[in-house]
Specification:
With 274 residues, the chain is α/β, with parallel strands linked by helices. It has a single domain, classed as Protein of unknown function UPF0759 (TIM Barrel). 34% of the residues lie in helices and 15% in strands. It is built from eleven helices and eight strands. The protein has an eight-stranded parallel sheet with strand order 1-8-7-6-5-4-3-2. Strand 4, helix 6 (130-142) and strand 5 (151-154) form a beta-alpha-beta unit. Helix 10 crosses helix 11. The radius of gyration is 18 Å and the shape is globular.
């Protein structure tokens, strides 16, 4: 597995949540680019990308080999763990699925960075309390393999973002994902929560409101919402994380504004990056 310094250099890595859309042809990809080659052209522009498709299942080994062979050695992939672990089995008796996923993704070698366990929004009708969640989460975190130390947990219940959760994650050096989502705290509120930086690195996801934006568009090649003011609110949060010595991984979803690459470029500008 890659060393901590290898995975976390440079201090900020920004990219998009997925790169597999024809809507970027003519903007990010050339007119004749085939789908398997999207990642090659993407990696010429961005130094990291989040793999969304792994949420739906472990990919074929040959697919991961293609990602590896089409990207430069310093490119870093983040990947969402399969939903069978987080949603279907809810962290119970999922050792085989996790091992299968990691064995496949580690084909990437030093290009494999953070692995994200994304949990659903546990509304009252699901009858899952924070107590239930933490009782499942604690033993699961304890059995995560030491060979990979870039773990991320994402929750979408903002009342659960408290010391009970952050202390547990910090104990295991697991990063809490900070997300821009309508159900969650705004950036300024997040920054004021004590102990929010739980891991050795920070992880931010700009997700947006899927249901609201899909009423406006279902293509992802142009901005349909102006999110610059929202992005500006994240600048001091990122700067604070960097001041704490936390390298930052950040990824923008197409549902944030309609055109994720443009948001990454705007973030880069606001943060004073090249």
């Amino acid at each position: 597995m890659q060393s901590q310094s290898k995975a976390h250099s440079p201090a900020i890595r920004l990219g998009t949540c997925s790169w597999s859309t024809r809507d970027w042809i003519g903007k990010i990809y050339g007119a004749d680019t085939k789908a398997p080659d999207y990642i090659q052209e993407y990696a010429q522009r961005f130094n990291s990308g989040e793999v969304d498709s792994t949420f739906y299942g472990t990919p074929r080994r040959s697919t991961v080999e293609g990602w590896r062979d089409r990207t430069p050695p310093d490119f870093i992939f983040a990947a969402k763990a399969p939903q069978v672990i987080t949603h279907e089995k809810f962290l119970d008796k999922c050792e085989r699925e996790l091992a299968e996923f990691l064995d496949t993704m580690e084909v990437l070698g030093p290009r494999l960075g953070p692995v994200v366990f994304q949990f659903p929004y546990y509304a009252k009708k699901r009858q899952v309390t924070q107590d239930d969640y933490l009782r499942r989460l604690d033993p699961f975190l304890k059995q995560l393999p030491d060979r990979h130390r870039h773990w991320v947990v994402e929750v979408r219940n903002k009342t659960w973002i408290n010391r009970r959760l952050t202390d547990l994650l910090a104990e295991h050096k697991i990063t809490l994902a900070l997300i821009d989502h309508p159900w969650m705290h705004r950036p300024g509120q997040l920054a004021r929560i004590d102990g929010i930086a739980t891991g050795d690195f920070a992880y931010i996801r700009w997700l947006g409101d899927r249901y609201a934006i899909e009423k406006i568009t279902t293509t992802w090649g142009e901005h349909v919402l102006d999110r610059r003011a929202d992005l500006e609110q994240w600048v001091p949060v990122v700067q604070k994380l960097l001041a704490l010595g936390k390298p930052v991984f950040g990824y923008v979803n197409s549902h944030y504004s309609g055109y994720a690459p443009g948001d990454v470029e705007a973030l880069s500008e606001l943060l004073g990056l090249r």
